[in-house]
Amino acid sequence: MLEMSSRSTSGRVSALQEITQSMKTKKDKLPSAQVSEYFGELTFNIAHMREKLPRDAYQNIVRALEKGEKISERTADLVAQAVKEWAMSKGATHFCHWFQPMTGLTAEKHDAFISIQNTNHSELTVIERFTGSQLIQGEPDASSFPSGGMRSTFEARGYTAWDPTSPIFILEGETTKTLCIPSVFFGYHGEALDLKTPLLRSTDVLSESCVEFLKLIGDVDAKSVTSTLGVEQEYFLIDRRFAALRPDLIMTGRTLIGAAPPRGQQLEDHYFGAIPTRVLTFMEELERELYRLGIPVKTRHNEVAPSQFELAPIFEHAVIAADHNTLLMEVIKKVANKQGLHCLLHEKPFKGINGSGKHCNWAMSNDKGENLLEPGKTPHQNIRFLAIVAVVLKAVYDHADVLRASIASPGNDHRLGANEAPPAIISVFVGSLLSRIFESIEKGKAADATDKQIIDLGVNQIPPISKDYTDRNRTSPFAFTGNKFEFRAVGSSHNVAIPVSTLNTAVAATLRKASKRLEELLKKHKRDEAVMALVKEYLVASKHVRFDGNGYSQEWRKEAEKRKLPIFDTTSEAVKVYQDKKAVEFFVEQKVLSAAEIESRFNVQVERYVKTLLIELNMLSELSKTHVIPAVESQLTKCYAVLDNCSDSLKKVYKKRVEALERVMKALVTGEEELLETISKIDSVHDEVKKMDMIQKTAIPLREELRAAADEAEVLVSDDLWTLPKYREMLFTHGIS
Ligand code: ADP
Ligand code: MG
Predict the structure, then answer these.
(1) Test site for ligand 1: of 361, 481, 487, most ligand atoms within 8 A of the Cβ
(2) Is the pTM of this model over 0.90?
(3) What is d(CA 202, CA 220) in angstroms, rounded to the nearest whole number?
(4) Residue 50 CB neighbours (<10 A)
(5) What is the DSSP pairing of strand 478-480 with strand 428-429?
(6) pLDDT tens sequence across 229-282
(7) Which of 90, 143, 343, 721 is least enclosed by beta carbons within 10 angstroms?
(8) Domain positions in the chain
(9) Any atom of ligand 1 within 6 Å of the Cβ of 230
(10) Which of 125-139, 521-535, 546-560, 618-632 has maximum average pLDDT?
């Protein structure tokens, strides 16, 4: 017993020793080239196509991108040929259709470029071949991807298809290079089996509905509108040697036990502090890899918690930004690994320490490149600005429940509602300047606004809304920050395609309604008056969703109840909105998701919730039995020896220590037993929704109790008997925080 514990203890202790000894950072010699020289070198982009393709084929691609024209067989073959030559010249041997199944992760199935030319006699001739049809469509074994029950009724096949809007790229392994073709994934009847298809559909409907609206408000030459997205990514870094000793981190991405260190983040000395050198080395390599993939990362800094960091790119077309964020999440892990680090993208890796989010900065711009959320210089531009903002507010108000569901996940359940992350109630922060303007509009000062009155109102002088105006209300889940909205409640590990396609669709649906209403108003009023009347109506109707105060406070919760805003604290409550036909019919009306697709997404989300939680619960039970309880046993053995041999006067006081340990031991043993019983009860139920509810109601409270006992044990047991790396060690490793 003693021997065993000393062996396992040495794992933790020797990791610690190794880490202190190897503190000097190895610095890979980074090439000194300017970023512009290698930016995008691993991507086959539109410039390559212009250079490598015959003119007509290139034009075909351009029209496909701009107008959705079909790509001809000949063009596909020519692109395939050019891509293959380019990829092989870079050393790629395989290709894959790179797609995002409903797991939220990415999937790849690699195929070699080789093809058998000649099977005469027994001699095979191998040639490198890659055809247009291989480029355009693939057929991965779909049965291993979740379909939420959709495919069982149809055909079991799934297909991937090249999405030409996103650049083809090469993914490098240690020794391998694979050509990745960004693709969508769908079933036999065209039903979407991935996250990207709805995002693509949503950007299309947003463009159509916004162009229609812009025309009515006077932008007669508007042709298309793009949704733009900049995704700020938060993450933790810890030394890989510690991660290897934490089965919970490896299996679940978060620590299931771990006592809070005496010093957490209360000193607030990490945020925006100097970036530690070891991390800087990591960031430099990460940025170089991202640049080579054409991902325009721009800012890097420390975050609030120790060992927490953030990375933000320059915004791009929403679909590309979403692909890039997904790719970034893969690259960040690979680079961390190379540098002896472990990157945690989980929303809440450490209890009591700030979690990680992913702010989705979102705006729309027209085909002239003007940001529709940017207050302009002319009264007209400002009317447009107000109209668009009013529509977004109304969209968020009307669809707050579905937006909440779009960010629901087991990981995010630890953040939302807690005093650290945007709360589980969807509200919008607009800042003091816009609030004032909105108030005057609501009061009717611009009810029948002529140009003159709009000017009087100050609308034509809306100054560029700087950060000072939008201040830093970090408690808002959805904030207007100058010239964009920031959806802040998104979790750090999420695939942004889900919240962004929900937002796009909500805004598109609201734009359609707004256009209808505006047509009516235009029968009675002059254009600017009609638009301002619409703005007023929408601001009044969506007033309840606006909230500039402290989103963490209990008063806000009460106020939100009064305002009848949807409040869903947990995933198990939030996702049920997908079963409410009325709540989700806007997806169907806008043709972004069919009823069957919504149902399948709901099923997948529930299934994933159940699986994730069961893995956590089983892991926790195992950790208790194999790490925590044995450590307490060893400690008790030692304590009993002391009791047997010590003086009566010491015995009296020493008993308290023994009693504390015994109490914790009882809690651990019974807690673990109860947890296992509950797990087997959950396992015996067949309905996934019921399982989810049981987990929320019965298993999670047990999980918390067992954890509390384990955390208490950690501070009662001798340091050398504790086998799992502690919070203070993981979070305050020199060179990382
Ligand atoms: P912060 O939020 O820290 O103040 P910035 O305002 O510079 O930082 O930008 C945060 C993110 O918002 C960046 O990724 C940036 O590219 C993105 N962003 C800026 N403008 C837009 C826009 N019009 N549409 C979408 N994202 C944008
Ligand atoms: Mg931000």
Answers:
(1) 361
(2) yes
(3) 23
(4) 13
(5) parallel
(6) 999 999 999 999 999 999 999 999 999 999 998 877 766 666 667 888 899 999
(7) 143
(8) 31-194
(9) yes
(10) 618-632
315 Cβ below 6 A of ligand 1: yes
Whether residue 318 contacts residue 348, with contact meaning beta carbons closer than 8 Å, is answered with no
Contact 577, 406 (CB under 8 A): no
Residue in the structure block whose two tokens are 């049965």: 143
What value does the mean pLDDT take over residues 430-444?
86
Q: Is any ligand 1 atom within 6 A of the Cβ of residue 710?
A: no
Contact (Cβ atoms closer than 8 angstroms) between residue 525 and residue 453:
no
- Give the Å distance between the CA of 269 and the centre of ligand 2: 19
Please report, to the nearest 10 degrees, the dihedral formed by the alpha carbons of residues 376, 378, 379, 385 taken in order. Answer: -20
Task: Return the top range by mean pLDDT from 36-50, 99-113, 398-412.
Answer: 398-412
Please tell me if the CB atom of residue 332 comes closer than 6 angstroms to any atom of ligand 1: no
| Domain 31-194 classification at class level | alpha beta
CA geometry: angle 729, 732, 737, nearest 5 deg: 150
Residue for token pair 């044990």: 713
The answer to whether residues 280 and 711 touch, using CB atoms and an 8 Å cutoff, is: no
The rounded Cα 654 to chain-centroid distance in angstroms is: 50
Q: Report the b/e string of 113-151 with b at 16+ CB within 10 A.
A: beeeeeeeeeeeeeeeebebebbbebebebeebbbbebb
| Partners of 479 in beta bridges | 429, 486
- Residue owning tokens 């509390």: 708
Q: Give kind and range of the element (H or E) at residue 480.
A: strand 478-480
Listed in sequence order, the residues at least 6 apart from 624 whose beta carbon sits closer than 8 Å to its beta carbon are 257, 668, 671, 672, 706, 710
What gap in Å lies between CA 304 and CA 355, rounded to an integer? 9
The answer to whether 362 and 500 are in contact (CB under 8 A) is: yes
User: pLDDT (tens digit, 9 = 90+) per residue, 155-196?
Assistant: 567 888 899 889 999 999 888 999 999 999 988 888 899 999
Strands (DSSP E) contained in 240-353 are 297-302, 308-313, 316-317, 341-344
At 490 the three-state DSSP class reads coil
**Is the CB of 556 inside a 6 Å radius of any atom of ligand 1?**
no
The SS3 of residue 303 is coil
- Indicate the length of the chain as a whole number: 737
Of the candidates 571, 575, 572, 555, which has an alpha carbon nearest to the alpha carbon of residue 563? 555
Reported as a pLDDT band with limits 50, 70 and 90, residue 110 is confident
Token look-up 């406070």 returns 553
